[in-house]
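anyone seen this seq b4? input:
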Amino acid sequence: MARPRRCRRICQEPAYDQFIPGGFAGGDSIYLSVDEYEVIRLIDYERLTHEQCGRQMDISRTTVTEIYGSAREKLAACLVDGRPLVISGGHYKLCKGGETCQIRPCRKAESKIRKPVLKKGEQEMRIAVTYESGMIFQHFGHTSQFKIYDIEDNQITKSQVVDTEGQGHGALSGFLSDLKTDILICGGIGGGAQSALAEAGIQLYGGAKGSADEAVQAYLDGTLSYDANVQCSHHGEEHHHSCGEHKHGCHGA
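predicted toks r here
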C-alpha cells in the first residue's frame, strides 16, 4: 500500500494566482501548485535554506528540493516560452500562525493582528462591497479592499474602506464575518466562497457592477441589479482553485 503524501503547510494563499505575459499570442497555461509557489516564496523571496523551508512546510528537505526543482522548471518555461502561469491546487494546509513558523512575524499571525475591528450598533445593518477606486471590484477572491457601509433606518450613516491585508479566497468570508457583515455586494465569486458566506449568514448580491456607492443606494431603494446565479469565470475550466473554492484536500494545520 502506497504511503499517503504528507500535507504541505503554507502561511497564506497567494494574493495573485494568474500571470499572463505581455503580447501573449496563445498557448497552454502552465500550472504551478500552491505548495510549489510556497517553496519558491520561502527559498527565493524569504531566502530560507531548504532545511528551514522543510521545517516551515512540515516536510523533508528532500521533498523541498524536489518541489523546488519542479517549480523552477515551470517558471523557466513561462519565461522562455511566454506561456501564462496559473497558481492552483496542490496538497496543502493553511498555517495557524503558531510557533512552528520560521518566518517572523508569521504572515498568518500578522494578518490576524491587522484585522480591523469595527463596532456596529444593535439597530444597524452592515453592507460590504468589494472595492477598487470607487468601483465594485469584479473578483471577490482577489479584492484588496472592502468598502463598509453602516445602515440605519434605510440610510447610510457611516462608510469606510478596509484593507484585506493580502487575505484571499476562503479567508475573506471569515474576514467579513469578523466585521459583522450582513450583506455582501460584489462582482464574480466562486461556489466555494458562496458556500462559506452562506455558512457565515452573510447575504450575497453578486454579479453587480459600477459605482460601489450607487450600488449600495440602489440596494436600499430596492433597485439593485445583480445575478442570483453568479459564478467567477475569470479563470479557465482547468483552474481547480478559483475564487474561494478550497480543494487542496487537507484539513487542519
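The chain is about 30% helix and 20% strand. Residues 142 and 224 are 23 Å apart (CA to CA). kinda curious what u guys think
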